[in-house]
Design a protein that fits this description.
six-stranded parallel sheet, eight-stranded mixed sheet, 14 strands, 604 residues, alpha/beta, single chain
Length: 604
C-alpha cells in the first residue's frame, strides 16, 4: 500500500523530533511504499540535510514553516509549491520547484475569507475565555475547511492571513462579549503576533499537495505528530476520503503549557495560541481513524483534548536493543560505587537537585562518584546551565576540586560520549551501578529505557511516563526532592543483590515492551486494519509503473455482486455541512472509482 507519511520538524531531516523512530518505521516495513510530506522548522534544519533514505521511498515533498514575514508578504501564494523530490524507487533523486502563484481575491472571495476567518477567530477567543462547546467546535471546523478550500482554489492564503483584514477580524473577536479578560486585553502588537503565528500554523493549507498525484493517491495518511503535521492529513480525508492515522509521542498543547515564560509571547498571545492548538487537536482526534499515543501519559493528555478513548491504542516507541546487548548480557554490574546520569544538559533535567542530592549521598557513602554524560542543549541557555552546574559541583566539593571548571579529584565529572574512555552510549551506562534520572519535566524517558536495556538499576523522579516505563523495576521518588533522591541512591548503593535483581527485571521489561520489533508489529497490524476498511481505488492505481498489480488496489469486497460499500466520495457528501460544496478539483474521478462514487452519492 502507499503510505503518505506526514512529518513536522523531523524526518527526513538529519535533526529533529521522531527522526530515528520514523526512519526505523520506514525501513522496517519495506513491503509498503512511503511518500514523505515534510514540514521544516528552521533554515538550519534544512542546511543540515537529510538522512539516507531507503529505496522504497516513492517521493519527498517538503515545505517550510519558518519563512520570514517579508517573504510571506512579498510572495503571496508562491509558498504553495515547496520542493518535490523523487525517491530511490522512482529512478533517482532530483529536485524541482512547483510554484502555484496565488491570485488576488475578488469581492466574493474576500467575503468568504472574512466570514471563515471570523468564525475561526470567534471560536478561538471563546475557547480562550470560558472553554468551548459543540457549537464553537463546529464553527471552528467549518471555518478551517472553508479556508482550506479557498486556499486550494486561489493559490494560498499566507499574505491574506497577514493582512490588515485579519488583524481587524481578530480584534473584533477579542473584544466581543463573553471573551476572557486575558484575551480582551490583547493589544495591536499582540494581535499582529498572533496573526503571524496563525499564518504559520495554517501554512499547510496553502501547499499544492492536495491533488490526485499527491495525497489523493495515498491509501493511508500517517501523521507522526499532531498540529501542523496532521493538517495535510485532515485535508486528504476531507477531499479524498483517505483514512488518517495519528501518532504522538508528545502532545503539542502540553508543550505549549510547559514552555518557559521568557518566550517572546505575552499572556494574551499565549492564551490565543493555546485555544487554537486545543481546537485543532480536537479536530485531528475527531477525524483520525486510529490514534497511537507513545505512552499512557500522552494518552491522558489526548483524552483531555477530546480524543475518543475507543480510537486510542498505546504503542511504545521502538528502540534498538542490540546496541546495548553486550552490556545487558554481561555479568559485570558496573562500577558499584558510581552513579551515572545520561541526557541533554538543560534546566528541565534538574541537575541542580541531583548535585545537592549527591552531596547527601557522599555523607552516607564517602567513596561514591557521580559521572554526568551529556552535551548542553543547543543555544546560549544550554551552555549557561552547564556552566552553572559545573560551578555548583566545585562549590559543593571544594576540598576535592582542583579548580572551578576542572574535574581533577572532584567526585563529580562532566563528560561527553565519544572519547577514548567512553566511546559509545552503552559504555556510559556500563560505567555505573545505578543510573539516575532527576528530571522535573519528561515525556517518554528514553535514557531510562536505555539503562533498562543495559540491565541497570535506576532511581527516577515521578514525572511524565516514568512510572509507566519502570513498572516496578526501579525506585521512583518525587521531583525536586534532593533528600528522597539521595535516600533511594544510598539504598541501592548499599545493596548489590537488590541492584542485580532490579537490573535483570528492568532488562526483561524493556525487551518485552520497548523494542523496534514490537513497534513495527503494532503498526504493521494497524496499517492492514485501516486499509481493510478502505473502499476500492481507481483503476489507474491498480498497477504500478512496471505493470505489476498493486497490493490492496482492489479490495476483496469489490468482487461481491451488488452494492457493497460507500465510496470515499460518498463519505465526503455526508461528512459535514460543507462537504456537499467541496471544490470541483476534489471530485474528479475516472473509471470504476467514479462509478462507485456516483452510486454512493445517490445513496446519500
Amino acid at each position: 500500500m502507499r503510505i503518505g507519511l506526514l512529518t513536522e520538524g523531523g524526518y527526513p531531516y538529519a535533526t529533529g523530533e521522531s527522526r530515528l523512530w520514523c526512519d526505523r518505521l520506514v525501513r522496517g516495513l519495506p513491503q509498503h511504499e512511503f511518500d514523505l510530506y515534510a514540514l521544516s522548522r528552521s533554515a538550519r534544519q534544512e542546511e543540515q540535510g537529510w538522512v539516507r533514505l531507503p529505496p522504497h521511498i516513492g517521493r519527498v515533498r517538503t515545505a517550510s514553516l519558518w519563512t520570514s514575514d517579508d517573504e510571506v508578504l512579498r510572495g503571496g501564494g508562491a509558498l504553495r509549491g515547496g520542493r518535490t523530490f523523487r525517491g530511490g524507487g522512482r529512478g533517482g533523486l532530483s529536485a524541482g520547484m512547483r510554484p502555484r502563484g496565488g491570485r488576488s481575491f475578488g469581492r466574493r472571495e474576500r467575503g468568504r475569507f472574512t466570514a471563515h476567518l471570523t468564525a475561526l477567530a470567534t471560536s478561538v477567543c471563546a475557547a480562550a475565555g470560558s472553554g468551548t462547546g459543540d457549537e464553537a467546535a463546529t464553527h471552528f471546523t467549518e471555518a478551517l475547511y472553508g479556508l482550506a478550500e479557498l486556499a486550494v482554489e486561489h493559490g494560498g492564503l499566507p499574505a491574506a492571513l497577514r493582512s490588515e483584514t485579519t488583524v481587524r477580524v481578530l480584534e473584533s473577536a477579542c473584544r466581543a462579549r463573553g471573551t476572557g479578560r486575558t484575551v480582551q486585553a490583547a493589544t495591536v502588537p499582540d494581535l499582529l503576533t498572533f496573526a503571524a503565528e496563525l499564518e504559520r500554523a495554517l501554512r499547510p493549507l496553502s501547499l499544492d499537495w492536495y491533488d490526485e498525484d499527491g495525497l489523493g493517491s495515498a491509501d493511508l495518511c500517517h501523521a507522526t505528530s499532531g498540529g501542523a503535521a496532521a493538517l495535510p492529513g485532515l485535508l486528504a480525508k476531507r477531499f479524498f476520503g483517505v483514512p488518517l492515522l495519528v501518532t504522538e509521542h508528545g502532545v503539542r498543547l502540553r508543550a505549549h503549557y510547559l514552555a518557559t515564560p521568557d518566550e517572546p509571547f505575552t499572556a494574551p498571545v499565549r492564551a490565543l495560541l493555546a485555544a487554537f492548538r486545543g481546537q485543532l487537536a480536537a479536530e485531528v482526534y475527531r477525524q483520525a481513524a486510529v490514534i497511537t499515543p507513545g505512552s499512557t501519559h500522552v494518552r491522558r493528555w489526548q483524552e483531555k483534548c477530546g480524543a475518543d478513548r475507543a480510537r486510542l491504542r498505546t504503542v511504545y516507541p521502538g528502540m534498538m536493543a542490540d546496541r546495548f546487548r553486550g552490556v545487558g548480557e554481561s555479568d559485570d554490574g558496573g562500577g558499584p560505587g558510581t552513579l551515572v546520569w545520561v541526557g541533554r544538559v538543560e534546566p528541565a533535567k534538574d541537575l541542580i537537585a541531583l548535585l545537592h542530592a549527591f552531596a547527601e549521598v557522599r555523607r552516607a557513602v564517602p567513596d561514591v562518584r557521580l559521572r554526568i554524560f551529556g552535551a548542553p542543549a543547543q543555544g546560549a541557555d544550554g551552555d549557561a546551565y552547564l556552566a552553572t552546574c559545573r560551578a555548583l559541583a566545585a562549590q559543593l566539593f571544594p576540598d576535592e576540586a582542583t579548580g572551578a571548571h576542572t574535574p581533577g579529584d572532584n567526585p563529580v565529572s562532566f563528560e561527553e560520549i565519544g572519547g577514548p574512555e567512553i566511546p559509545d552510549l552503552a559504555e556510559a551506562y556500563a560505567a555505573g551501578g545505578v543510573v539516575v534520572l532527576s528530571s522535573v519535566v519528561e515525556g517518554f524517558p528514553v535514557s531510562l529505557v536505555e539503562a533498562m536495556f543495559c540491565g541497570r538499576a535506576t532511581v527516577s523522579t515521578d514525572v511524565g511516563a516514568v512510572v509507566e516505563v519502570i513498572g516496578g523495576t526501579g525506585l521512583v521518588v518525587p521531583p525536586r526532592n534532593p533528600r528522597a533522591l539521595a535516600d533511594a541512591c544510598v539504598a541501592l548503593l548499599r545493596d548489590p543483590e537488590r541492584r542485580a535483581r532490579l537490573g535483570a527485571a528492568a532488562r526483561a521489561r524493556a525487551l518485552e515492551l520497548f523494542t523496534v520489533e514490537q513497534n513495527l508489529a503494532a503498526f504493521r497490524g494497524i496499517y492492514l486494519e485501516l486499509i481493510s476498511r478502505s473502499p476500492a481505488r481507481r483503476e489507474a492505481d491498480a498497477v504500478d509503473a512496471d505493470g505489476e498489480p498493486r497490493p490492496f488496489a482492489t479490495p476483496a469486497e469489490a468482487h461481491v455482486p451488488g452494492r457493497w460499500t460507500a465510496s470515499r466520495t460518498s463519505a465526503l457528501v455526508t461528512a459535514g455541512p460543507d462537504a456537499a460544496r467541496r471544490p470541483s478539483w476534489a471530485i474528479r474521478r475516472t473509471g470504476a472509482y467514479a462509478a462507485a462514487a456516483g452510486a454512493g452519492a445517490g445513496d446519500a
